[in-house]
Amino acid sequence: MADESAGTGVAELDRALGGLYWGDNVVWVWEGGELSSQRLFYDAIARCREDFGRTGYIVVSSDPAEVKARWPWIEILDARMGTPIASQRGLLEAIRQFCVRARRPLLLFDSLEAVSGRWGMRAASDFFGRCCPMLLDLGAIAYWSVPGASQYRTLHREIEQITQCIIVVGRDRLRISKAEGRPPGVQGQLFRYSVHDGTLQLQPAQAAARVGAALRAYRLRRELSQSDLARLARVSPSAISQVERGERGLSLETLLALAGRLNITLDELLGGEVTPDYRIGRRRSLGDVSAGSVLPLLDDAEAGMRVYLVSMPRSATVEAPFTHKGAELVGVVSGLVQVLLGSGRPVLRRGETLLASRRGIDAWRNVGESDAHCLWVLRD
Predict the structure, then answer these.
(1) d(CA 187, CA 17)
(2) φ, ψ of residue 95 in degrees (nearest 5)
(3) What is the tens place of the pLDDT at every residue in 249-274?
(4) Which phi-psi region, left, alpha or beta, contains residue 82 (left: φ > 0; alpha: ψ -120 to 50)?
(5) Which CATH architecture has domain 207-271?
(6) Level-2 CATH architecture, domain 293-379
(7) Can you tell me the distance from the alpha carbon of 261 to that of 312, in angstroms, rounded to the nearest whole number?
(8) Is 323 exposed, middle or buried (0-12, 13-18, 19+ CB in 10 A)?
(9) CA dihedral for 206, 212, 214, 217, sign (positive or negative)
(10) pLDDT at position 1, please?
């Protein structure tokens, strides 16, 4: 695939996520199912090796020979006890060196269960908290996995705060729990999966199953029992159990009342997560932004805001790609930028901003000695 994104190897999942962006850390939370099924998701992306410049597997407790037998082309980073990169510091540096030596790296990690078993839960959480942002900055795609059991709740919270994607896998279901940089509606999608001739197949789940999975996800997130949720919904605990298994639904009136008592929106309840009060505009492309370009980062119709990244090589002038009616803000990220308006041509240094409230911006000119970048923010 192009530098813009990579595939998971599972077509239906790629359609939902829009592929994986370079820098995505994907955490698979295993709530049930056979170990063989879990490995198939790793298999699927590992077979897409033409999308990646380099593929590595971080061994913490697995047998490297078994990993090589499964994926002969993969490189092993052996972090087992007694190896030179067995420490947190050594492993982080080995991962960094692996990524900087090739474009489009893919890393598959042993389960965080093994990492926490080696270093303890707090140290495993700290390792993830340092490694995940580093991989984002290096433009690597990484697969992590962690059990869904309650004893890993502290680790789950760290993961939820910092990673880009979370996919929760049950016995026959898969739910997108977090998907940064994707359009509204991606988070919370539920699929049923099956395995035919060793190949994963996903299908969107029926409405009742989606409601049940969302309720269960939200209940666990809030650490509520089925009886607690039943009391709030004013139904029986057995009814909540049936809903979570996808065997029945709840009326719209009941769902609205439950959302009100939980002090969340219906969308948040049916999404299974607390909708974050922010949106991220991710750069999908790998490496530097094309010179002389205006790259869209974020378009939020509800907020009435759009954000673009303007990139200018030395001495270049970049024209605004369209005329806009409304307030416009320019913030210089790097370089020295002259903003061309009908009423003047002011020059901004790094860290300075300009607000054009009456007439739009015509163009930007790099008047410095190096490449320049600025953010162009539109209020519709």
Answers:
(1) 9
(2) -65, -45
(3) 888 888 888 888 888 777 777 765 55
(4) left
(5) Orthogonal Bundle (1.10)
(6) Sandwich (2.60)
(7) 52
(8) exposed
(9) negative
(10) 46
What's domain 5-204's superfamily in CATH? P-loop containing nucleotide triphosphate hydrolases (3.40.50.300)
Same fold, 207-271 and 293-379: no
State how far the Cα of 366 lies from the Cα of 316, in Å rounded to an integer: 6
Place of tokens 């009326």: 251
Mean pLDDT check: name the lowest of 206-215, 246-255, 309-318: 206-215
Classify 244 as helix, strand or coil.
helix
| Whole-angstrom distance, CA of residue 330 vs CA of residue 335 | 13
Give every CB contact of residue 50 below 8 A, 6+ residues apart in sequence.
none
Residue closest to 129 by CA, chosen among 176, 161, 89: 161
| pTM confidence score | 0.79
Q: Which two tokens stand for residue 43?
A: 């298999």
**Could you count the other beta carbons within 10 Å of the beta carbon of residue 134?**
15
Residue 10's nearest CA partner among 50, 44, 46, 56 is 44
- In the chain, where are the structural domains located? 5-204, 207-271, 293-379
Nearest-10 crossing angle of helices 121-138, 153-162: 20
pLDDT of 28-74, one tens digit each? 999 876 656 778 899 999 999 999 999 999 999 999 999 999 999 99
Task: Name the residue among 346, 340, 336 with its Cα closest to residue 370.
Answer: 336
